[in-house]
Amino acid sequence: MVIKKMKVILLLGLWFLTLPVSTAFGAESDPFYDKVMNSGELVVGLSAGYAPYEFHATVNGKDTIVGFDIAIAEKVAKDMGVKLRIVELNFDALLGALKTGKIDVIISGMSPTPERLKEVNFSRSYMEVEQKVLIRKKDRDKYQSVNDFNQIKVGVQKQSTQEALADKELSGSQLVSLAKGADVVLNLQNKKVDAAVLESVVAEAYASQDSQLLVSDIAFADGQKETAIAIPKDAPVLEGKINDSIDTIIAEKLLPGYQKEANQLMFQKESFFKKYYSYFLKGTVTTILLALFGVLVGSIMGSFLAVMKRAKTIIPRGIASVYIEFVRGTPLLAQIFLVYFGSTVFGLELNAFTAGCVALALNSGAYVAEIIRAGLNSVDKGQTEAARSLGMDSKQTLRFILFPQAIKNILPALGNEFVTIIKESSVVSVIGVSELMFQAGVVQGASFKPFLPILCISLIYFVLTFTLSRLVGLLEKKLALSD
With the CA atoms of 137, 141, 145 and 146 taken in that order, what torsion angle do they form, in degrees rounded to the nearest 10? Predict the structure, then answer.
């Protein structure tokens, strides 16, 4: 009997020794933690339009992302002995960025939900917040409980805790899901929705800046939500390090100090344009760079595609046709996500600006190809015959005879493509490229003025496109005179 027991113990001991060290004694490393330590930086994803969690402010004359979530991120990075790098994205793009390795963690006022827990893990909660309904003051008697919203439009942020809560508890309401918290408030101010569900600290901040708004006393049954840091699956060491920092923050009661500092930065006493003109200037420069790259590279691509589509052999003609039809048949937004997130599959770590430039160039190339092909087809066939009679081959005919004449014919269409790219570049804001539309969202979140930033960028877009249209018109007249 004793011998049998010894055999069992021996077998269990051998089995235990065959386990990985991380299983037998607790994880000592994981690939996500190793990546952070090897790179020497913690890459934190967030959506910086959600004051006081995270927002832009001018600190010492420099545009800086601040807020108590930033203070928490700085504490975590400091405890790990690495630098902090912020990657700014739309809120609904954060989980995708985490799962594809674009960021290491998410610190953006995010709450664990059953749906999110299927995709990522969460740290210990560092804050518990209450969800509130923001309404217009004149409606205070109209909306007094969760049962008063039947067929009422309620604004919420897309893929947020507030969206799920409103859907569950505001019975019969018509949810209007928008990309940013500032968009939700803008819709409320302009009577596009009749109420907005926001976290209490955010709702109170907006109400303090707009005398027409009121934080109602409506109470949700499940209105208390925990806020935590999103972490990739299978990252026990990284999760443990983050939890250690959160324990320190809670034990030393650091969060109230973080919140006080954020509130002071939220309400700096400066005029709107003096405080935010640099944001619009930066956005304008980025928009012009995106458009220039998109049109220039797109024109080169389009030229090759147009020639391929005119080829006599089926292979180049087929490749060009498939590419052009695919790009023209899919939304630019989908193409941007394919380039930004899909590049990781091929081992390419494209930053947001590069991915935006590439996506715009690929998109523009397909449209320019059709413009150039139409221009080449518009040149009289007698021109080709005359070139051949002079001894030119097909390449020389295309280069010296057809292309120069086609460019004159398609100049208005190319000018329109440039104008279109300037306006469509606003879509790349979803991956955090700081062009005009993105900067408008930044200013909305920091200033609590949802309408004025949109008006400003609309005027800037108009100046850019109107100026470009006039320049193209002058060039057309000059070419017409040369005829």
Answer: -60
